Amino acid sequence: xxxxxxxxxxxxxxxxxxxxxxxxxxxxxxxxxxxxxxxxxxxxxxxxxxxxxxxxxxxxxxxxxxxxxxxxxxxxxxxxxxxxxxxxxxxxxxxxxxxxxxxxxxxxxxxxxxxxxxxxxxxxxxxxxxxxxxxxxxxxxxxxxxxxxxxxxxxxxxxxxxxxxxxxxxxxxxxxxxxxxxxxxxxxxxxxxxxxxxxxxxxxxxxxxxxxxxxxxxxxxxxxxxxxxxxxxxxxxxxxxxxxxxxxxxxxxxxxxxxxxxxxxxxxxxxxxxxxxxxxxxxxxxxxxxxxxxxxxxxxxxxxxxxxxxxxxxxxxxxxxxxxxxxxxxxxxxxxxxxxxxxxxxxxxxxxxxxxxxxxxxxxxxxxxxxxxxxxxxxxxxxxxxxxxxxxxxxxxxxxxxxxxxxxxxxxxxxxxxxxxxx
Length: 423
Known about the structure:
Elements: H1 2-18, H2 37-42, H3 54-70, H4 72-75, E1 85-89, H5 100-114, E2 121-127, H6 135-138, E3 139-145, H7 149-152, E4 158-163, H8 174-182, E5 185-190, H9 214-237, E6 242-248, H10 250-260, E7 265-271, H11 277-283, H12 288-296, H13 301-307, H14 317-321, E8 326-332, H15 340-353, E9 357-362, H16 374-406, H17 408-422
Parallel strand pairs: 4-5, 4-6, 6-7, 7-8, 8-9
Antiparallel strand pairs: 1-2, 2-3, 3-5
């Protein structure tokens, strides 16, 4: 009886949190072939040559997804940026809702900035190799949290890339980055496409990251994956040797697919995970406005599952499992956004494929994860895992390094590595 009462209370709380924002917009469904123009060209097609009718259009979009999955190395490839730079500026909130407490927080930060009471912070900026019609979105933004030098002493330089949830403001997950710094781990808190400073002026929320435009949503994930890999490139150029990624909700999906295509991302923390992008959008409370658009167009869950197969973690499970990685998966028992059954599918797939993972369960829902006391439990799971994973990685590195030093070839290799790092 107590368990049933707790479940009812938790579902009610979760529903209250997912329905408090009233600025969600129902936009009509669009195929968005123009967002995948390069893929069409590789297939000898053009966005201008629209199929005659919705059935043919759906068949073409499904075929595009299948091509992307088969050729994902090509789809997520990129020309390395040439304009990396660190920019010092005052932190801003960039809220995505109009709740009074959020607007008050934003006003407070602006007042502190105007009074000179806010310190500038470093942000990594570069032009995304994936271009969109929005220049502000194509200028990648990642707040840089370098670990203190004394905390990094005696071990390889380690760094995490942090990807917050959909519609996160610019302060979300910053506390995790500061926590990692205490462990001697640097962090890049990456703004996802169409989020905070990258959000087009026409939007109140980060709607273009996930929407009823099929092609644009695929393009947004592609851009996020490429941006993540570019951040790892920059970290490597700064002498960092060991890397990890942490993603929450939508950020978890982005993080998983990036890691499946980049073996450098060894430490992986997936905070809320699911298998199919389309299933989450169709069944989740926070995407009910997107489902409404699809239902108005006569779409079904089964068909949407196929239309977004190229951005679904399930499509890349075997690829991910083929690499050596340390993985944390967190899910919530009363999640109404990433349904528990889909998170269990992730755990089942990892087990069957032999992934080295740890599973943690939160006694709350998706949105209530950000509420007291659950946010502290969630932070403990993520922080302790990242600390232990990097500690073990550093120990393994030191042991192999000692073995290399014993041989003449190992001494020569160590000398070469030292020279490269010092450049």
